[in-house]
Amino acid sequence: MKRLLGAMTLMAAVGVAQAQAQQTPPAAPSEQQAAPEAGGLTWTSPSGWETQGARPMRVATYRIAPAKGDTDSAELAIFYFGAGQGGAVDANVKRWLGQFQKADGTAITEKDARSKKETVNGLAITTLDVKGTYTGGGPMMGPSTPKPGYRLLGAIAEGPEGPLFFKLTGPERTVASAEKGFRKLLESVKKK
Asked: Where is this region: Disordered (predicted)?
């Protein structure tokens, strides 16, 4: 009986601790917050980009307000799947290209996009810039209807614990307005 009561008390204490951890309020804006991190890498979020709540498979999501003339906002999703997960860099670049079409409905190819491999802060980073009709990446990953006039700025940073995927999508003008911030974010990516 004592064991049962002891086990029940321990379970109750763990439950209270978990509930308190989940209810911890976010840090006040005046407090210094730690840089976001995943996969052994950290980065600095651009000012003015709205941090979104938790989402499946994402380590961070940012909303970029629509540029003048656009009605839709843009979104930067950052993914980390774990060491050895997420697939090869070239396969992901091809997958992202496959999420876009030309205005006539034909497939976007590597010739229609800009891709570059570079080293930033000692890390191999592959970037992609593609424009067209965004068809998304399936029922959970993209729009329910094709979105013409969209653009994707993507980057894959090869970190010490696996790749980190940065995918910024939205209307062309809004993504263009976020391009400098995206570049600044990539230049801030470093090992923790």
From this structure: 22-54
Distance of CA 106 to the CA centre of its chain: 27
Q: Answer whether residue 181 is part of any domain.
A: yes
Please give the single-letter amino acid code of residue 8.
Answer: M
Rounded to two decimals, what is the model's pTM?
A: 0.79
Q: What ranges in the chain are assigned the alpha helix state H?
A: 2-22, 89-97, 172-188
Host domain of residue 76: 36-191
pLDDT by position in tens, the chain (length 192): 444 334 333 333 333 333 333 333 333 333 334 568 999 999 999 888 999 987 888 999 999 999 999 999 999 999 999 998 999 999 999 999 999 999 999 999 999 999 999 999 999 999 999 999 999 865 455 556 899 999 999 999 999 999 999 999 999 999 999 999 999 999 999 999
* CATH classification of the domain holding 46: 3.40.1000.10
